[in-house]
Amino acid sequence: MNQELNYYLTIVSQNVEYQRIIYGVLKRLHIHPYHPYRADYEQEAHLIMALALHDFHEHNHKCTDAKEVGLFLYQRLYWRLLDKLRAEQIQRHNIQFSIDQINDDHHDEEMPNMLSKIFHDQSVDRQFCHCEINQFFQQLLPLLTNQQRRYLELLYLDYSPAEIAERLHISQQAVSNLRRRVIKCGRALLNEG
Fold first, then answer.
1. Using 50, 70 and 90 to split pLDDT, how confident is the model at 21?
2. Each residue of 129-167: b (16+ CB within 10 Å) or e?
């Protein structure tokens, strides 16, 4: 299967029409070129496309109509990536905490657990780096206002600036100001250390 997959991956990466299908699906799913995980989604799309092409050829030996093949690949790719995006969204929304809900009395006790949930990278488990991130945010969050903490939470949940403005009932300019203040606080904290 690995040789077959490599063969189909080569076909997908060299075929201009298949590349157009991939970029069309990414565009339809609003995964723009500046999306932080664009490269990951492109790789995932190539794998899905290669497997779909393999399935198509395995089950439709006689079909050589490029339009039918393209339609099959587009639909398979769109639905598989949409399922992946929905699963990621559900995972993000299953976080059972909110920065706003941190009780000031137990602030020091709850902060490391909350931050480890927010900033834990499942693909890479480097404890040292993870501890540094926890320590940084443990020092940063007390310096921020409740509004700035809420901004960070919504930013983590992949809300756009317009959506953050709507959720916080403020203007987009105010969101931009929040962003600048959080960055300024973070830089000041880094410069102290």
1. very high
2. ebeebbebbebbbeebeeebbbbbbbbeeebebeebbee
Burial category of 126 from C-beta neighbours within 10 Å (exposed 0-12, middle 13-18, buried 19 and up): exposed
Confidence of residue 78 (pLDDT cuts 50, 70, 90): very high
What's the CA gap between 19 and 40, in Å, rounded? Answer: 15
And the tokens for 134?
């926890």
Q: Counting runs of H as helices and runs of E as strands, what totals does the chain give?
A: 9, 0
Q: List alpha helices for 29-126, DSSP H.
A: 38-59, 66-93, 107-119
* First vs last C-alpha separation in the chain: 52
DSSP class of residue 29?
A: T
Per-residue confidence (pLDDT) for residue 92, from 0 to 100: 66
Q: How sure is the predictor about 57, in pLDDT bands with cuts at 50, 70 and 90? A: confident
Question: Which is it for the CA torsion 101, 104, 109, 114, positive or negative?
Answer: positive
